[in-house]
Amino acid sequence: MRTLSLLLFALAACASAPKESSSTSVRSDEFYALANGVPVIHVRDHSLPTVKVVLEFPRGANTEAPDEEGAVALLASLMERGAGGKSALEMAAAAENLGLEIGVSAGRENLTISGSGLKRHLPRLLELMNLVASSPNLSADELERVRRQQLARFVQERSQPSSLGSNVMLKKLYGADRQGRPVAGTAASVKGVSKGVVDRLFAQIVGAGPAVIGLFGDLDIAEAKPMLQKAFGQWKAPATPQPSMPLNVEDGPRVHVVHKAGLSQATVILAHGGLQRTDPRWETVQVMNFILGGGGFSSRLMKLVRSEKGLTYGIRSRFAGGARGGPFTISAATRNEKVRELIDLSMQVVDDLRQNGVSEEDLNQAKNYLLGSFPLRLETPEGEGSYLMMARRYGLGDDYLAAYPERVKAVTRTAVSMAASELLDTSRLRIIVVGPREALYDQLKDLGDVTASDWQDDSAIPPNP
Amino acid sequence: MLHLTLMTQLLAAPLPLDVQDHQLDNGLQVLTVRRMSAPTVSVQLWVRTGSRDERPGITGIAHLFEHMMFKGSKKLGPEEHARKVQGLGGQLNAYTSNDMTVYFENVAAQHLEAILELEADRFQSLALSNTMLASEREVVKEERRMRTDDNPVGKLVEAFITTAYQTSNYRWPVIGYMEDLNKITLDDCSAFYKAHYNPKNVTIILVGALEHADALAKVKTHFGAWPAQKRPARSYTPEPAPKEARRKTLSFATQTPLLLGGWQIPGASDEDIPALQVLGQVLSGGMSSRLYRGLVYEKEMANYAAGDVWEFAGKGQFYLWASARPGVKIEAVEAAMIEAVEGVREGGVTGEELDRARAQVERQAVYSLKRASGIAGLLGRSLIYYGDWRPALHYLDKLKAVEAADVQRVARRYLDPKLITSVHLLPEAKP
To answer: Which residues have CB under 8 Å from A163's CB, separation 6+?
Structure first.
């Protein structure tokens, strides 16, 4: 046996640190507030000289009026296009010249400004993020530019069956509710967003201040706090989230085909209402969903539909969560002629779980996975930080990293059975299929009323050619 | 004090990884990397085989075989390996490329030995059956439909590969042709397993919260009895340099025209690759890059536009990749991209562009060390491309040493517009 050792100097230095074999020796979570009361979640980790800063503003697409859909997403893009009098290209160069990345993203419940890079550039990163948050140019020219870009993106997305199916699924479940369209809105709504609306949303969302700031990486509190205070002390107080409106699923025809001729494989989405991230059953539902279709090769759907029947490359089920409770979905793709078989088998698996519950073995497998994989989700300071920010967003408690494993351990077979009977119901599942209608209609017609639309423009067409 | 020292050193060369290189008596190479920042470990088995080791007629067997590695062993039933890993909280998967096949698990550090035992089981006593092959063949065909046949980007990539490579072992797609997938037999799978899955053709890379000697002892316990076998010779027919431009046009049910172009460049271990990678940064590293700024932002011709190195162990590609905005012809996008390349060939790059590229690659290098799996990947790719993991520690130095003249030189040497391979994917004409 040949052994060649190459112990490099940096790790030799590290070896002198006390008890480095424990992750806690290089990582700690701190919670404090700036002078204006804005809370900070600080994950201190000196293992690499990097830092990430996140400002989370607790209003997003859910605050848009019906004729403003997509405006918050446009605002987020626009905030990346110049600030403090610097043009879009000048701002981009200022960050990229130092290897920094700064981005603004819109969600249903929030708008987020994030920046990251090597720690030695942190002062510059904070300076640039401050400009983005406090004085973005929001120029009319750039608004038209990001609008054109978004409209082109809508066209591009239509090439992906999964995007087509997902957008139709939202519309069928939630109808006119804002949840019925993606955060980016639709081509029609984006065309109608005015500069005045964007300016108002900026004042309303960003002007109100962040709900929380995240700082993850190679920095101690004593160093971080004055820097954050200087960069983000301008708001009077932290913003508070708006209460979430309940989300109702609309009635409608059970089956919808998004017709796209020429596809050899159909994309299938089965969906009904889900549950809110704040629901006390969340961990129970995670265990249940792992067994059903969230657990890869351990899941019942994967075992039957892929491993035994060879019908698909992958099938998964998911509860989207979120403040209002996004949908429960099962999604997969299969060759056109097998669509009905895939749907029937999927429903059979759901019905069986609802009627017969889960075995002790299944329960333990799911719990072991969720508990055992938890450290992997926290491997990086950014991963740990985003988990803590999620916990704060949904009021799960700053001790959620410790509470989560305990909650998973406490899940019982009875609780899973109860959750299954309360939350899964194949009779309520809406069925969305993207594929050639001529190959699909006969397979789907006895599942319920069938409607259809054309993939290119969503226009209604007969489901039966 | 400690972290200041670390930081200063990290940004100097080489990358600070505590690597030990071992070889068992049967020829199995084991790399252990001690990294204590998280209580996790990444276990990766890099097999020196990929689609380039196939032959026409059974294209796709390397990837199909990778799927068969999940279908059971003498001890375990189908997918039981995966379920056992998940029962330990582990995440697992595998992937196949032209040059390599990689199996990996990320898991809490205390389960290292259990994972090694599971991997040793399937690497040494895989059970192959016609029933399993029949169902997994259908799964792979579904994967092909999803990734290639019904996917405009997949279609484009396959057309590009088969146009750019006409002689070498890279000339067929990794996933294989549908007609070949239908033909692969159990005997083909057995022969593939026997030829490529043996100790001298595999490297085990372990990264995370481990002690070198202990990790090595665990590997020896489970892999030490794996019979030694001669390392298979890898055949490789080099691709001759194109003598003229090659063009192909496809049509597809899409509303967005796409372009994938490219030029032949040397293999990933060649000394010109760092300069080509810096060129990639100059062309497409962020909003300030020439292609984004010019085509996406200023001219608004493209949804995205990028150019970079596509690494292969043998001859690779420097690709150009774009999607046209509605109403813009893809030919115009290609012309604008070529103009940007010509700009570098004729005028070189600026000092600011070079400094920006250096800052960006430095960031990428540091971020590549964030996860144990990322570190294992860095070492594994180096093994495949260089035959040695050590160059992985020096790649940042090489990138930072690239000068403006190097970038212009490689652009002139390799990116001759007259020799481009270019594939366009256009929306189908309406009936």
So the answer is: A157
Query: Does residue B235 lie within any of the structural domains?
Result: no
Strand order in the sheet with B101-108: A2-6, B18-23, B29-34, B202-208, B40-47, B101-108, B91-96
Collect all residues of chain A within an 8 Å Cβ-Cβ radius of residue B281.
none
Q: Kindly list the distances between the CA atom of residue B415 and the CA atoms of B166, B402, B408, in Å, as whole numbers in the listed order.
A: 19, 18, 10
Residue of B nearest to A382 (CA): B370
* Residue A40, burial from CB neighbour count under 10 angstroms (0-12, 13-18, 19+): buried
Q: A310, B136 in Cβ contact below 8 A?
A: yes
- B206 and B318 belong to one structural domain: no
> Alpha helices, DSSP H only, in B242-371?
273-284, 290-291, 330-347, 351-367
The CA distance from B242 to the nearest CA of chain A, in Å, is 32
Task: Write the pLDDT tens digit of every residue in A379-432.
Answer: 999 999 999 999 999 999 999 999 999 999 999 999 999 999 999 999 999 999
Q: Which of B164, B192, B223 is at the close of a domain?
A: B223
Of B135, B303, B356, the CB nearest to A156: B303
Domain that holds residue A105: 28-232
Instruction: Examine the pLDDT at B12 and tell me if it is beyond 70.
Output: no
Here the contacts of B241-244 (C-beta below 8 Å, separation 24 or greater) are B241/B419, B242/B164, B242/B419, B242/B421, B243/B419, B244/B418, B244/B419
- Gap between the Cα atoms of B391 and B378, Å rounded: 10
* Tens digit of each residue's pLDDT (9 = 90 or more) over A112-124: 999 999 999 999 9
The mean pLDDT of B251-263, rounded to a whole number, is 96
Owner of token pair 């954050």: A228
- B372 to chain A, minimum CA–CA distance in Å? 9
Taking the CA of residue A25 and the nearest CA in chain B, the distance in Å comes to 8
Q: Give the Cα separation of B249 and B159 in Å (integer).
A: 9
Residue-level pLDDT at B236 = 87
Are B118 and B170 within one domain?
yes
- Is B6 in Cβ contact with A373 (below 8 Å)? no
**Chain B residues lying within 8 Å of A14, measured CB to CB:** 2, 6, 36
pLDDT tens-digit readout, B85-121:
999 999 999 999 999 999 999 999 999 999 999 999 9
- Measured in angstroms, the CA of A182 and the nearest CA of chain B are apart by 19
Q: What percent of chain A has pLDDT over 90?
A: 93
Here the CATH number for the domain that contains residue A168 is 3.30.830.10
Residues from chain A contacting residue B299 (CB–CB below 8 Å): none
